[in-house]
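Full entry
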Amino acid sequence: MQVVQIVFSPTGGTQRVADIIAGALGKPAERVDLTSPTAGFSSVHLDEEDLVVIAVPSYGGRVPALAAERLAQVRGHGARAVLVCVYGNRAYEDTLVELEDVASAAGFHEVAAVAAVAEHSILHQYATGRPDSADRAELEGFARRIAEKLAGQNADAAPTGVPGNRPYKQAGGSAMVPKGDSSCVACGLCARRCPAQAIDPASPRKTDPERCIGCMRCVSECPQGARKVSGALLKAAGLALRKACSERKGCELYL
C-alpha cells in the first residue's frame, strides 16, 4: 500500500496535520501540492492500492473553491481516501461533506474523515501553536484506528456521522486582501508563490481582489514582512470571533 498526500496548505497548518496523519499511516511516497498554480493535476492518477490523505483548510465553513477545482482534476480510480479538514478553532461547518462530494466525484473511495485544528491563518491569537503535542498524540491515535479499520472486514465502509449540510452554506468572498507596503522590495516571491496568481509580478504591491482568496501565503512568506491586511479589519474580525474561538476545540474522527 502506497500512502499519498494531496494537500492544499497555503500557510502550512494543514500540511502539518496531514504530515502527522500520513506519517503514522506509512511513509508518504508522493505529495501533490494543490496550491501550485502551474502543476498539471489532471496528470495525477491513483489506483485502488493507494491510500490517499486529502487535506484542505476550512475557509468560512467551506472547501476553498480553488482547492476543490484542482482536486476535481485528479483521477482517484478507486483509491481509498482519508479526508481531512483543518480549521482555526471556530467551526468547519460544511467543509467535510463538501470534501466528500468533491473526492467522490474525482473517483476516490472515502474510508475515514478527520477534523483538526491549526493556528488561525489570519488571526494568530486563536489556536496559537496548534497542532501541538496534544493534537499530535490525538491524530496519531486516529491514524492507528484508521489502520485497524483498513486491516479489518469493514475496510471499505464509508465513515458515518460526518457533520455538515447539503446544500452547503453560501460561500463568502474574502474581505482580507493583503497588500504590499513601502518596505516591499519587489522581489516577486509573493507573486510566484500565490496559489491564485492574484499578485502582479511586475507590481507586487498590488493584489487583484477578485482573484485573491485570502489564504495569507504572501503574508506568511514575505521575507520583508511587507505584506499586510488592514489593521482595522483584523481587529474587527478578532472581536467577532472571540467568543466562538475562546474554548479549545479538539480533533474529531469519523470511521
Remarks:
- The first strand starts at residue 2 and ends at 7.
- Helices lie at 13-25, 65-71, 95-105, 133-150, 189-193, 217-221, 231-245.
- Residues 128 and 210 are 29 Å apart (CA to CA).
- The chain has a mean pLDDT of 95.
